[in-house]
Amino acid sequence: MSRRARIVLIVALAIASTTVLAVGAGAVYVYRDGMIDVHVQEKEPGGTAIHVMVPTVFVRVVLAFVPLSPDMRPGPEVRPWWPVVEAASSAIAGAPDGVFVQVDGPDEHVRIAKEDGRLVVDVDDTDARVRVSVPVRAVEYVVRRIRPGESGWCPRARIRITASTRAPVAPPA
Questions:
Q1: Which of 21, 33, 50, 76 could disulfide-link 56, Cβ–Cβ 3.0 to 4.6 Å?
Q2: 4-43 burial, b for 16+ CB within 10 Å, e for fewer?
């Protein structure tokens, strides 16, 4: 093999190796960042079923590169509550897995919980069943990114969610 052919072969192998490593690193990043999963099932006979999974990386990229105009951010009525929203999203990220809200009615069921680092919203009513699952880190990122006004415009709040240590209350006799 000539010297020139060896150089071309080495360059081709270096490019191929770099490409494989970059694709592998990208795949690992997408896998670790998680997926946003939306599943909707209509309950009527022949009802539509929609299942969409989107890599969270796409949300991060869009929010990083799309300029948010003031009318795309939360309005003035939300501003006083935004520190609480930020604190709640951070607290949910650090909270143990468990159910945050559960409402059961005669014809509907709503459940909001944290499961394996994901915020899961389940709604089951007479018309449809809906399940939305979002990585908690993505929720934190979106809340920080769409913060009203300029950074530092308001104080930050802190909320801590822990497992309940209270003893169960006995029903009245």
A1: 33
A2: eeeeeeeeeeeeeeeeeeeeeeeeeeeeebbbbbeebeee
Q: Please list the residues that pair with 26 across neighbouring strands.
A: none
Give the C-alpha distances (Å, rounded to integers) separating 161 from 111, 118, 167: 17, 15, 17
Running DSSP on this structure, what letter comes out for residue 171?
A: P
Whether residue 122 contacts residue 109, with contact meaning beta carbons closer than 8 Å, is answered with: yes
Digit-coded pLDDT (tens) for 43-98: 888 889 999 998 888 888 888 787 777 777 777 787 788 888 888 888 888 889 99
Rounded Cα–Cα distance for residues 132 and 120 (Å): 6
Q: Percent helix, strand, coil in the chain (nearest 5)?
A: 40, 25, 35
Residue ranges of the alpha helices (H) in 73-135? 82-94
Secondary structure element (H or E) that encloses residue 56, with its range: helix 56-65
Whether 156 and 84 have beta carbons less than 8 Å apart is answered as: no
Q: At what angle do helices 3-33 and 56-65 cross, to 10 degrees?
A: 100
